[in-house]
Amino acid sequence: MKTDNDQVIRWILPKPINENELVNVNLNIILQKVLIRRGIDLDDELDEYLTPSELPNPEEHFDELSKASHRIIEACNRNEKIAVCGDYDADGITSTTLLVEILSLLGARVDSFIPSRQEQGYGLNPTMINEIHNQNIRLIITVDNGISAFDAIKKSNELGIDLIITDHHKIPKKNLSYHSLIHPEKTPTNSPYKYLAGVGIAYVLAINICKKLNFDINNSSANSLLCIGTIADMAPLKGANRKWLKEYLPRINKSTNRGIISILKRLYINKKEITSEDIGYKIAPLINAVGRIGDPKIIVDLFTIGSKSKIERLTNDCFEISKDRKRITALIEQEALVMALDEYKYDRKFLVLTNKDWHSGIIGIVASRMVDKFNLPTAIIAKAKDGNYRGSVRSNKILNVNQALEECSDLLIAYGGHSAAAGFSIKEKNISKLKEKLITIAEREFANLDISKTINPDAHINFNEIDDNFYDQLNLIGPFGIMNPTPIFWTRKCRIVKINKLRGGHLKITLNDGKSSIQALKWKSSLNLKVNDVVDIAFYIETNYWNNSKSIQLNILDIKSHQNIINLQLHKRNYICQINEKDCIQVTNSLGQSIYSDRYTESQNMNIKQKLFIKKILTFAEIALGKAA
Description:
The chain is of the alpha/beta class. The protein has 4 domains: 8-38 and 458-561, CATH 2.40.50.140; 58-251, inorganic pyrophosphatase (n-terminal core) (Alpha-Beta Complex); 332-448, Diaminopimelate Epimerase, Chain A, domain 1, CATH 3.10.310.30; 566-624, no CATH class. It has helices spanning 29-37, 42-50, 65-77, 90-105, 126-134, 150-158, 198-212, 222-232, 239-248, 258-266, 276-293, 297-304, 308-345, 363-374, 401-407, 431-446, 468-476, 608-624; strands spanning 8-11, 81-85, 109-113, 139-143, 162-166, 180-182, 351-354, 378-383, 389-394, 412-417, 421-426, 453-455, 459-460, 489-501, 507-512, 517-522, 534-546, 549-561, 566-570, 573-579, 585-588, 594-596.
């Protein structure tokens, strides 16, 4: 039997943990091992990890925060109108909404401006500056954009508009003139604010102003919007992000924001504690859908208008747009897959797929789907309304796609992004040259590398160890996301007791590992599994809410046929591991020599170095055979 996903070639199992590394704390030993493998020093760092300490005064970390705050407070006192200029993705929309709501509550006259993805593209632009100037606005605050808007910055200076930039994208090596800049790159080394998304920077500004005006930010939607935008933008869950999300995520379903609650109800998650997975897979895609193919102002209005009838209408609009986005995505994905298979056949290391008729708002999603299927960096390119072409690039977690675009800058009109995701504009005549260059870069970077898709389980666990107490402790080491991924567990020798096929190719399975039974789901499975098949599984542990009841279930990532004999590679040598008839571990080398777990210390012919090596290989075999976590 193949693994369930043809791209998952192998599992890389965790290294053994020395028992003296474990500490006497009220945390499950399996979870202690997970944290140790992630580099957490349980003696010195566990308390801070589980209960992050208070954050430092942000004015001590952002040198222009005070200046920006005073200018905004001055505008409020003078009854000046303020423009908040955001972006059309979930980070930009939540950032915009957050500042619009807070400044309105503080008595400011404030309006939002978000560019059309199709008409104007990303970020602040001279057309927006002219529109703002025509409305006699003299203060602009950007959120999640602005640092690379050179023409717009120049235009705002010419028109005498004060520009406060809050952004987290890379600061260009160019002299810029603005009123103030609040950016994580300008914070000290090891600052807890280093990892903030655009919404996090907007939140820092908002909370600083609120403190100066003695307004409690908890009397707003800011905390909920912060969580949604941070997770949607895949910001690392470290420092301030981890502190805030641990505190605010559990409160989202109790928000007083009618727009947020309306969305939670339509997604059937309003009666449960919201998790980062709920945001990443349900809430954020809905917001992004509106930004991709609709008018992002719909979301801003939904989250800032109190009218019950308008909220219902706007919620319906959001879900209709999301439905349309799914339909368009499915069509483009089908076409892109045909092209990708042809490229894959010729062993291309970078998939570059172009169709002038594809919707430019969807191409990022399709690029991600191609990476999932082929584990290769992918660029999806479509024609924009200005006659040029726009591309979205996604990485396979090995190639830094932003650096790759930097090497191709002579072919591009504009580009930007991060190591995992980036975008660019290009003239049609340069697309074929770009494709050749990106493939060459990928071939260079992947030389001598095994780029086959792998999964890395954090720990082995038996089903009888998975209970409510374990799940509660698992949540203690969350929230999960970038730089703190959801732990992957694995279990050997599971017998399929019952299997039901669900709509969409999903499977609901009852499994028994010889000690206990548990329910599991496998999404979009292509395997022909049968009752009594014996398998090994890798999975997430989650909760299932159904008919007002809550139960623990497994979300299976990969399934493979169980084998009694395991091939173990250590120091580039292969060993065969198995449990013999005496229930002892037996390890055999390539020469046919075997050692046994019940008597490896008995030999008098071994020196200390040999005994240590044998002990080491047996501990690795314990992990591989599921005898230790």
